Fold these 4 entries.
Entry 1:
Amino acid sequence: MRDFLKEPWPWYVAGPLIGLVVPALYWMGGRSFGVSSNLRHLCAALLPGRADFLRYDWRGSGGWNLLFAVGIVAGGVIAGTLLADPHMNLETAYGLTPEGLLPRELFSWEALATPAGILALVVGGFLVGFGASWAGGCTSGHAITGLASLELPSLIAVCGFFAGGLVATHLIWPGVLP
């Protein structure tokens, strides 16, 4: 029998659990799960009264969501340290190398320290923040909570996210990386 704490769960177990747990929590607690609004809650908590946009009761509307985001980070740390398999080697197990997954021309400190790298980081961060704000939430919030609550705007947003990802992957990305 497989040891579920030391081995990755198969996609056909983990996927449905994610797909069922979040809607169940939404329907039981009436809370939507998303991460993009946490920056506003964090700024409202740390910089109260600095801007009209940050003057609201973040404890009542966002305190639990900040705890949710802290749990995401804590879960990643626990999974990466306490539950990590020191004998796991992606190259041996799956034939993957870091260079194959993340091209050094784009994903390295040297590439980031160039004017083009800084510009891409700033413009990309702005576009992600603007897009999440304009769409009324991030990809995870729409795809998991929005679809679970059967919201048409979330379905439209998720279709747009996928279409944008396909266009970027198949049309834009090949022009960026020769």
Entry 2:
Amino acid sequence: MASMDKKDIYEHLAKIYLDASNNKKKKPQEQLRFKRLFVIFLVSTLSLTAILTYYFVRNKSLHSEVALVLQSEVIKINFNFDPAKKEIYSIPLKKLNASKYKHLGFALKKENFNDRISLKIELTNVFNEKSEIYAKDIPHKWRDYKINFLDFKNITDWSSLTNLSFIVEEWNSREKSGIIYIDNVRFIK
């Protein structure tokens, strides 16, 4: 029986030794697997960053615009064409020199989803030169507009602007009453 005990003891010790050596082999394999996953994660992250950076730079989304903000608060034009025929919101420009700027920018939206409406945008200078542009089919959600100064055909001198007006006219609205919101009014270089 003693020999069996020795045999059992040897087998038990061999099993412990083999298990220990198998565990040692597993640890490097687990570490290698972790390193591979880490490298895959790192390459994926860097690739995604490169793609997004290329996309934003190409679409100029990361470039900031140089602008002169004319109205920082949201403008609300609440029009009612009974008896009025138009509603006007004016921003006095006090002989503002806009010759260094190239565009008029703003955001627009209407309150009534069903209304079909256009907004007249009018600029005036000190020489009483007036020019207007229409923003047609104003959406129900905010939309940015960027109008080139060259589109204001009757303005020849941009060094002394006196007034910027937003005008809702009865003949440019399907409904007799409603609300238009204007935000982020600015001149852009």
Entry 3:
Amino acid sequence: MAGDLTSLEALKRYLGREEGISEPGETSDDLLKELIAAASRLVTGFARREFVASEGEEERVFAHDGGLFLDLDPFDVREVASVSIIRGGATTALETGAFGLRPLPSIDGVYQWLMLATDPGACEVKVKGKWGFEKVPADVATWVHVTIAEWVRGGVYAYTQEIEAAALYSSRSLPRLVETGLEDTYRRPVVA
């Protein structure tokens, strides 16, 4: 799926299974795909980052209360094509020198903030660019694997036809180890 941070094949390798093998009592491939989607959403939401690259350029609009910094939370931008200020229905494009990307140097090839040369006051800011990490970091994919392994090995999602559908909707959370790993390397700091 589009927001998945790993593949079914990579997860199966992590879990120690060979591709194509499905024995009674094992977790089904369809359920593993659902768990990949669920764990990917949890990891992305916890980190407040955009680990999957957008296809081409996209425009995104941010509410801005004023000041020189615009937090792109929860998004990460790789390249910016244009920045515009929207106020009262009028749109004003900023020249390239009127904004900068931060942090410098970029971390993992992405930026989390725009620094504006002048305070535009309260407005909306439209940013057109390429969003998300170029490639999902390997350790982020591993955190998804660890999360699913905890869910599956913990017996919460062991496959049986009777409970498969119910298991998809039961409560899920990230293991503390995963939260700590994301906190140390990827979680976006809260800007007050």
Entry 4:
Amino acid sequence: MFYKYNKKKLKFESCDKLVVKVVTGIILIILVTSLSSYTLGRFTTKNRFIELESPLYIIEKDNPNHDFSRDALVEMIKELGIKYPKIVLAQSILETGHWTSIIFEENHNLFGMRQARLRIRTAKGTQLNHAYYDNWKESVYDYAFYQCRYLSKINSEEEYFAALDATYAEATDYSETLKSIIEKEDLKKLFE
């Protein structure tokens, strides 16, 4: 439960849903901007945030039917400053079967993520044994939070692959499959 201080009544009162959304938005902004090398001004010029009252911002709610594209995903990965972007894009391709799986189509889940329990998350719950989101962008934010929480101290691609093999995937050849996708689809050029 969230509370706010009412200066006129000199007491704390329960927050309404808008305040909870604003607080959640602030937390998301702090985490997203910590992942990005861009300034907050760059985000506001792209109309990603709605200014409510300086310095509070809330993430604009996307239309759940917004068209997904590989280029839009690449752009969002770049904007968020996600580490090892070609590996992350390869994960999306592998986990969704080139964005055709039921987990992607119904859950808007790009990475086969399960609902997190011990970190900030954007997932709305579990459906089809995977996290589900209101839109595909929330899935990207959730992956960014996952990466920030668990993989932020990794310093090389090989360490990243090893961490994915150890904790992310059940397949024993997961990183080798990702490397194959990166090479076959020439994903490196998208992030140069």
